[in-house]
Amino acid sequence: MARVALRTFAFRRLLHLSRFPRPSSFPTLKFHTAASALRMGASVEQFEEAKSRLSTLKNDPGNEAKLKIYALFKQSTMGPCTTGRPGMLDFINRAKWDAWNGMGNVPQEDARQQYCDLIGSLVAAEGGSASVTAKPAGSSQYNTLLVTTEDNITTIKLNRPAKKNAITTEMYTEIMAALGHASTDSSVLAVFTGAGDFYCSGNDLTNFTKIPEGGVEEMAQQGGELLRKYIKSYIDFPKPLVAVVNGPAVGVSVTVLGLFDLVYATEKATFHTPFSQLGQSAEGCSSYTFPKMMGHAKACEMLLFNKKLSAAQACSLGLVTEVFPESTFQTEVWTRLKAYAQLPPNSLALSKQLIRSSEVERLHEVNDAEVERLKERWTSDECFNAVMSFFQAKAKL
Ligand code: COA
C-alpha cells in the first residue's frame, strides 16, 4: 500500500513539474470524473476546444497572461485553491499559487468561461477567430476524431494534431465507437488516418498520470481492459480496414497495423515501437503478427530493441503495403481507395472474414496474453521511471 501511495503521490507531484504553464500538461482527471463537470454540457466542450487552441498560439503571451491562464485552468478543473503557499524561494510555484489563490471562490463554470474568453482574445490577437464555439448538437458525436462517410468509405481521422494524435482514454473509446459504427454503416471500406504532420504518437502518456482512488494497480487493471477491448475491435472488424499513414507512427498505432488489410504510407512516415525504452511490452497482437510477417529477428529489432523503420524499410518487411511520394500521396491513395470502394461490398467483406477466420481465435489469445503482461508492466518500476523521465524532460524545456 505504501508503495502505491508513494507512486500516486509521485505521479501527482510530477504533473507540477510539467512545462510551465501549458495547462494541457496539468491534471485533468478531476475535471473528467467530477460529477459536477459532467453536468456542464457544452461548456466542457468549449473548454476542451480552448485548451487545444492554446497550443496553436505562435507567440509567447507573456508572464502575466500565462499566470492568468494557469489560475483559470486550475480554478476551472479543481475549484478554489486549498493547498499551502509555497516557500519564498520557490518563486515560480509561489507566483502560480498566488494567481490561483487570487481567484477566490469564483465558480468553476465562470472560470471556464473566462478561460475560453482569454484564449479567444489571445488567438484573435494573432489573427485567428476569437470565438470558441461549442459544436452544435448532433454535428459530431466525437471530440477527438473526424469521422466521415463519403464515396462508400468511412474515414476515421485522429484529430489531436497539437499532441501528434496521441491516444487518450477518451480517444480509445471514441475509436471503438467509430469502428463499431463503421462495421454496420453503408460503407465498403474503413480508413484510418491522422490530422496534421503525424499519423499518431501512440498511447498518450498522460493516461499513466491519471491515477484512480485504487492506485496504480487499478489504473493498470482499467487500462488493460480498455486495451483488450480496443484491440478486439480491430481483430473483429468485418470489412476491409485501410491505414493511410500520413506521417510518423509510434507505439500502438504501429502494432495494430498488423491487423489492417492494407497500409499505404507516405515516404516521410516512420514506424517506431519504443516499448522496452518505456519499460513496457508489445501489444496490438504484434508479438504474433510481426514475427509472422517479417521474421523473428527483424520483429525483435523493432519490438525489443526499439528500431525505428523508414517507410521503405517497413514496406520491405511487409508491414506497409506500398509507399508513395509525399507530393502525390493523398491524390494517389484516395484515387485508388475510391476505386476499391466501388467493388461489390459483400464479396469484399466475406473474403476479408474468410482470411481472418483461420486465425481469429489465435489473435484473441495473443491479445489477452499481451494485455496481462502489460498490466504487470504498467505497475513496474521500469515503466514508472520511464514515464517520469518523459515528463521531466518536458519540464526542463
Ligand atoms: N503522450 C503524451 N503527449 C504527447 C505524446 C504522447 N504519446 N506525443 C506527443 N505528445 C505531446 C508532447 O508532449 C507535446 O506536448 P506540449 O506541446 O504540451 O509540450 C506535443 O505533443 C507535441 O510533441 P513534441 O514532443 O513537441 O513534438 P516532436 O515532434 O518534437 O516529437 C514525438 C514528437 C512523438 C517523437 C515525441 O512527442 C514523443 O516521443 N512522444 C512520446 C511517444 C511515445 O513514447 N508514445 C508511446 C509509445 S508506447
Describe this structure in words.
This protein has 397 residues and is an alpha/beta fold. It contains 17 helices and nine strands. The strands form two sheets. A six-stranded mixed sheet has the order 1-2-3-4-6-9, sandwiched between helices. Strands 5-7-8 form a three-stranded mixed sheet. α9 (215-235) links the parallel β3 (189-194) and β4 (241-245). α5 (63-78) packs antiparallel against α7. It is globular and about 65 Å long. Coenzyme A (COA) binds next to loops.
| Main sheet properties | 6 strands, mixed
Treating each run of at least 4 consecutive H or I residues as one helix, how many helices?
17
Q: What is the top-level CATH class of the largest domain?
A: Alpha Beta
SSE order: HHHHHHHEEHEHEEHEEHHEHEHHHH
Give the overall average pLDDT.
Answer: 85
Number of domains in the coordinates?
A: 2
In short:
The chain has 397 residues and is α/β, with parallel strands linked by helices. The chain has helices spanning 2-15, 29-33, 35-38, 42-54, 63-78, 91-101, 108-125, 169-184, 215-235, 252-255, 286-294, 296-303, 311-316, 329-340, 345-357, 360-378, 381-396; strands spanning 145-150, 153-158, 189-194, 241-245, 249-250, 262-266, 270-272, 309-310, 322-324.
Features:
397 residues; alpha/beta; 2-enoyl-CoA Hydratase, Chain A, domain 1; Acyl-CoA Binding Protein; 2 domains; six-stranded mixed beta sheet; three-stranded mixed beta sheet; 10% strand; disordered N terminus; binds coenzyme A
Topology:
Layout: H1 2-15, H2 29-33, H3 35-38, H4 42-54, H5 63-78, H6 91-101, H7 108-125, E1 145-150, E2 153-158, H8 169-184, E3 189-194, H9 215-235, E4 241-245, E5 249-250, H10 252-255, E6 262-266, E7 270-272, H11 286-294, H12 296-303, E8 309-310, H13 311-316, E9 322-324, H14 329-340, H15 345-357, H16 360-378, H17 381-396
Parallel strand pairs: 2-3, 3-4, 4-6, 5-7, 6-9
Antiparallel strand pairs: 1-2, 7-8
Helix pairs in contact: 1-17, 4-7, 5-6, 5-7, 8-9, 9-16, 11-12
Bound molecules: coenzyme A.
